[in-house]
Design brief:
By secondary structure, the protein is of the alpha/beta class. It is about 50% helix and about 15% strand. The chain has a 7-stranded parallel beta sheet, sandwiched between helices. Helix 5 links the parallel strand 4 and strand 5. Helix 3 crosses helix 8, helix 5 packs parallel to helix 6 and helix 8 crosses helix 9. It is globular. The termini are far apart. About 5% of the residues have low confidence.
């Protein structure tokens, strides 16, 4: 009995130390990025933006990020025309989506679809897959080759503001394929010379995906309970990312190229 109680005491002590250490790590990560976004009147900014009569396209509207972004843009009625560029036609039951334009393209022959990218002021790129789903070669083809070619066509077609959804830790010199690929495409898209390039580097996205991603599901389950206390340490709600993209569209550019890290995205996403 004494041995059992002794083992329980050691286990509880270890658990306490582990929780305290974990909290310290999250606290450090939470404060590692310092960025405060001034409060903005998005309603007034949206009204002013509508008067510019601008158009946009979305790449990856069938995925969770693109789908949520589309909903936000449609509800706010920011653009005179929204074009969805993808590998298949999407169907919508809500009549608010009936004025969307859709362009079906073959991403393996994207250079043959210049017309689909022509005549848009703003472009949102939410394309992405995983190594687990597509394999290493397929992942690079989607997250690098498709994204870069689409950006090239967008630039040639007159797009002035390009939004690129990337990832926390993106680094072209990284030894990890995922982060290296994200970093490489960021750098190469920047070289295209858009009038304005906005790169978003969110951490683990908190969203219930329809697509099965076991590793991401486990990360969300682990990080979810901590997100209320440390909202930007290692995760971020997808709603925050989408709202940040919209808010950043409305605000004036401070730099030609802007990289928004996780905390900046979170803070921008809660402005209203």
């Amino acid at each position: 009995m004494n041995i059992f109680l002794g083992n329980c005491g050691k286990a509880c002590s270890f658990l306490t130390v582990f929780v305290v250490a974990l909290a310290a790590v999250f606290q450090y990560l939470e404060n590692s990025e310092t960025d405060e976004i001034p409060r903005m009147d998005l309603h007034a900014m949206a009204e002013k933006y509508r008067q510019k009569n601008r158009t946009c396209f979305i790449l990856g509207a069938s995925g969770e990020s693109g789908k949520m972004l589309l909903k936000e843009l449609v509800e706010r009625k920011l653009f005179s025309k929204i074009t969805l560029i993808g590998r298949r036609l999407l169907t919508f039951e809500d009549k608010t989506y009936e004025n969307l334009e859709q362009k079906v393209v073959d991403f393996e022959k994207l250079e043959e679809y210049e017309e689909a990218f022509r005549g848009h002021d703003v472009g949102y790129c939410c394309l992405g897959t995983t190594k687990a789903k597509a394999g290493a070669e397929g992942f690079v083809r989607v997250d690098h080759d498709y994204v870069l070619k689409a950006a090239e066509l967008a630039k040639a077609g007159g797009c002035s503001h390009f939004h690129l959804e990337s990832s926390k830790g993106a680094d072209k010199t990284s030894s990890f394929l995922y982060l290296k690929t994200k970093g490489q495409v960021e750098a190469e898209v920047e070289e295209l010379g858009f009038e304005r390039l906005s790169i978003y580097r969110p951490a683990v996205l908190l969203v219930d995906r329809q697509e099965s991603r076991p590793a991401e599901w486990m990360a969300r389950k682990f990080l979810g309970p901590f997100s209320s206390v440390f909202p930007t340490a290692m995760s971020i709600p997808l709603t925050s990312v989408v709202r940040a993209m919209v808010a950043n569209t409305l605000k004036d550019a401070e730099n030609k190229v802007e990289i928004l890290e996780n905390k900046s995205i979170y803070n921008l996403g809660k402005t209203e």
